[in-house]
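G., the chain you wanted modeled:
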Amino acid sequence: MLGASELDTQDYSGPAAHCLVLAIAGRRGRTQQLVRSHIPPRTERMAVDQDWTSVYPTAAVFKPASVPLPVRMGYPVKRGVPPPKEGNLELLKIPNFLHLTPPAIKKHCAALKDFCTEWPSALDSDEKCEQHFPIEIETTDYVSSGTSIRNPKARVVTLRVKLSNLNLDDHAKKKLVKLVGERYCKDTDILTITTDRCPLRRQNYDYGMHLLTVLYHESWKTEMWESEKAEEDMEEYIWENSRSEKNALDTLLRINASENVSNVTKEELLASDVVKNYRNSVIALKNEGETENNMSQYKESVKKLLNIQALP
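Predicted structure as tokens:
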């Protein structure tokens, strides 16, 4: 034990401030060592209106002496309360958002305001935005507690565009739909491309735009074998120049010839309501399949075409 006379409490200024001089007696005489006294934490010296952005200006680990909150975290010992913030390693493991408080975000926005431009007054509706910017990009940011603030799912990029907004003719649209498969929704006319192969979000965005560009130019190409496609090879049934159209015209012309009606042209027959109803029923039957509704419509259109409504 050291006596009271061996402890010098002389106050020093400069780098040795807040230190006590400890005199230790030894064989060769007394030696003096500086022992740092306990400094009160910053939380006890912080004002009530302290500028929090100067305490946590950037992302940093949790500092118990700088956070004036009674934060506790960890497993309760002996059915008590979780350990306090002082010396708590659990608070150091997880990322915190103490640097992203509302005042800090307002300061960031005020600093970035000089580099931003006003929203164009011409884009005052969603329809105009879709007209001038048809491609929609969707990304997701994740906020979670873990060893890292990076989430691997944040790299996923989803690209959406309506085919009606692209400059495509009938051949190019059908070929593009054939190439993309299930990525195209016929009800909404929206093509959806999702990319997640690359490790970074920017890389997936560039890859998605590359895929859309390649699909667009590839759909406009016409291969040699495409000119050899027969009616059975078409993606959907086409009424114009089909055998059904020719058979319907031949049947009507023979009916008119038997009734001594010769002043009706083929164009007038095709524009009649009877032929239009038969055309719509045949297209629905070929493209949508033999459903009960399609079969009923086809039956009625044939009866009207042949003028046999009186039959059951």
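Residues 119 and 129 are 11 Å apart (CA to CA).

Shout if anything looks off.
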